[in-house]
Specification:
heterodimer; A: mainly beta; Immunoglobulin-like; 5-stranded mixed beta sheet; 4-stranded antiparallel beta sheet; B: alpha+beta; 2 helices; 45% helix; rod-shaped
């Protein structure tokens, strides 16, 4: 029997999330429907167990909110609702050799009114689609 | 004793967000600065040639 020691990133929708001392704290997690046409506060929590062999290796991350036809959603300032940057997890002293690295990350969105429809957060790591989570904005008129 | 305090994640994670893209106004200002800062020596050289 083999034991899986690492896995790809997992995205969780929630009302609020924060990373404190390397641990992920979430509230109101696990939903997939949100009220449309109301300024929405939401967060996407990313849980990623990075393989030991990829420690201290910068990873290019892009987390983007898309409409159902694949168009990036923009906020009131005209900017994409997205988190883009470099992500890196380091091996702490004393960690058992070969251990996966628990690497949480949070992306918060504030006061974003969404038209009714289906939306999707897509996560690309090093330009490769790695995870996604879908939700619906319901109510109101399209 | 608080059981939660016994769990720990010592992994250090670093996230460096991309710089904010310049606004239309800022792009215009940057372009204007580049135009204004053309070295005069270049124009003299061309005039001689």
């Amino acid at each position: 029997m083999s034991i899986e020691t690492s896995y790809g990133p997992l995205l969780i929708l929630c009302d609020w999330a924060e990373v404190i001392n390397g641990k992920l704290y979430m509230m109101g997690a696990g939903w997939s429907r949100i009220a449309a046409n109301v300024p929405a506060n939401l967060a996407v929590a990313l849980i990623w167990k990075i393989p030991w062999t990829h420690a201290n290796e910068p990873q290019r991350i892009e987390l983007v909110l898309l409409t159902e036809d694949g168009t990036p959603v923009v906020d009131s300032g005209g900017k994409d609702v997205a988190l883009k940057g470099q992500f890196e997890a380091g091996r702490p002293p004393g960690l058992k050799f070969g251990s996966p690295l628990d690497a949480p990350l949070v992306f918060g969105v504030r006061n974003l009114p969404l038209s009714p429809g289906r939306y999707r957060f897509e996560l690309k790591i090093n330009d490769s689609l790695s995870a996604g989570v879908t939700f619906d904005a319901v109510g109101g008129t399209p | 004793m608080n059981r939660l305090s016994k769990t720990t994640n010592p992994v250090e994670v670093k996230f460096t967000p991309d710089p904010e893209p310049a606004s239309e106004y800022q792009r215009f200002v940057d372009l204007a600065k580049r135009i204004v800062s053309v070295p005069k020596a270049d124009t003299k050289e061309k005039a001689k040639g």
